[in-house]
């Protein structure tokens, strides 16, 4: 029995606590009831889904179908698409956590769900970084911006971002796997079944790539852009829309607040192979950081509405126009029906008179 427990534990040594805070030790010994962090995580994920689906759908509808295509609308359209696709998959993760980490949805949905999460993380931070660079170049180097800031070039950048995010998130499709254990089906990272050194090497590489490319470099780029922008705007007295500036800055800050704990705990997670004392802390902290990271997918549309006066005006204009068209159709339909009824009444009167 001890050999079996040791074998099962070795199989799950490569389990990623950042995405699923499942404890192999507790599963082998006894069932541990979910703690408060478990339910708070579910609440955050549920909130992200409830607010994220309609919020991002509205942004996609407005920027993709109602408003004129500009460079700015293309940036925010693709940012909303990344968040919208992610929140559509959230019910799978919520069910997984609610069933105490039992994955009944099969191998391919296990891979797809993890891949969509990685795709959302990288595409969101890439688009936010590009938006920051675009704002800086547009305001500080207007000649260069006017020469190259076209819809055609923007579409090329958008395609490159999606391809890059897919490539970096691709390992989730390859390494993600399912495992049957004690009447539970786990969805986990299967870096290797029998080679501990290979497990650690792959785990470290993917974690540091995710941290450096998906967080650190974008953070430095956005920080430098906004610091330089603020300094040069004051120095040159450049006119800038305060609302637009604060909208973009608020979106970036929301991303940092939501994703910073996730990346910090993902790095701390690497020590669990050498220091088991971190195990309980990670079990308590990772659910909250994961739920907080997922919550970011519903915050961007809220920030647009709360901060951007232009967005509010356009939203009201689009909704008013839609309601006007709907009421006009109903009114026209009612008028036609009334005309038909009057015509029928008149015809009946003529027939009666003829008789």
Description of the molecule:
By secondary structure, the chain is mainly alpha-helical. The protein contains twelve helices and two strands, in the order ααααααααββαααα. It has a two-stranded antiparallel ribbon. It is globular.
Short summary:
One of its GO terms (biological process) is inflammatory response. This protein is mainly alpha-helical.
Blueprint (SSEs and pairs):
Layout: H1 2-11, H2 24-29, H3 36-66, H4 71-98, H5 107-140, H6 142-148, H7 151-169, H8 171-175, E1 176-181, E2 184-189, H9 196-236, H10 242-269, H11 279-307, H12 309-354
Antiparallel strand pairs: 1-2
Helix pairs in contact: 3-4, 3-11, 4-5, 4-7, 4-11, 5-6, 5-7, 5-9, 5-10, 9-10, 10-11
Alpha carbon gyration radius:
27 Å
Would you tell me the overall average pLDDT?
76
The largest pleated sheet is described as: 2 strands, antiparallel
What low-confidence regions span 5 or more consecutive residues with pLDDT below 50? 1-33
Terminal residue distance = 102 Å
Organism: Heterocephalus glaber (Naked mole rat)
Subcellular location: Cell membrane
Membrane topology: Multi-pass membrane protein
GO molecular function: complement receptor activity; G protein-coupled receptor activity
Offer a few descriptive terms.
355 residues; mainly alpha; two-stranded antiparallel ribbon; 80% helix; 3% strand; glycoprotein; GPCR_Rhodpsn; disulfide bond; G-protein coupled receptor; complement receptor activity
């Amino acid at each position: 029995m001890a050999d079996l427990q040791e074998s099962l534990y070795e199989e799950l040594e490569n389990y990623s606590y950042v995405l699923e805070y499942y404890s192999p030790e507790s599963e082998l010994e006894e069932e541990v009831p979910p703690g408060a962090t478990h339910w708070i995580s579910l609440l955050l994920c549920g909130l992200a889904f409830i607010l994220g689906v309609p919020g991002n759908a509205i942004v996609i509808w407005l920027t993709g179908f109602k408003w004129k295509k500009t460079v700015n609308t293309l940036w925010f359209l693709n940012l909303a698409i990344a968040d919208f696709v992610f929140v559509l998959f959230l019910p799978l993760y919520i069910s997984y956590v609610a069933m105490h980490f039992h994955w009944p949805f099969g191998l391919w949905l296990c891979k797809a769900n993890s891949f969509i999460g990685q795709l959302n993380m990288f595409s969101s931070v890439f688009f936010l970084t590009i938006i920051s660079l675009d704002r800086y170049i547009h305001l500080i180097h207007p000649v260069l911006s006017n020469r190259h800031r076209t819809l055609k070039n923007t579409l090329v950048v958008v395609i490159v971002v999606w391809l890059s995010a897919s490539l970096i998130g691709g390992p989730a499709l390859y390494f993600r796997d399912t495992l049957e254990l004690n009447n539970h089906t786990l969805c986990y990272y299967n870096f290797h079944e029998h080679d501990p050194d290979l497990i650690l090497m792959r785990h470290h590489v993917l974690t540091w790539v995710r941290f450096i490319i998906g967080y650190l470099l974008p953070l430095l780029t956005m920080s430098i852009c906004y610091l330089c922008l603020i300094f040069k705007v004051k120095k040159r007295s450049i006119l800038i829309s305060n609302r637009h500036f604060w909208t973009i800055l608020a979106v970036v800050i929301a991303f940092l607040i939501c994703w910073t704990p996730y990346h910090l705990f993902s790095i701390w997670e690497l020590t669990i192979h050498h220091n088991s004392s971190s195990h309980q802390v990670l079990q308590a902290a990772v659910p909250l950081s994961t739920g907080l990271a997922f919550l970011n997918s519903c915050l961007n549309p809220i920030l647009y509405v709360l901060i951007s006066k232009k967005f509010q005006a356009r939203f009201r204009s689009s909704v008013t126009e839609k309601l006007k068209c709907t009421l006009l159709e109903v009114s026209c339909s009612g008028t036609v029906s009334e005309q038909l009824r009057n015509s029928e009444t008149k015809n009946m009167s003529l027939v009666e008179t003829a008789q």
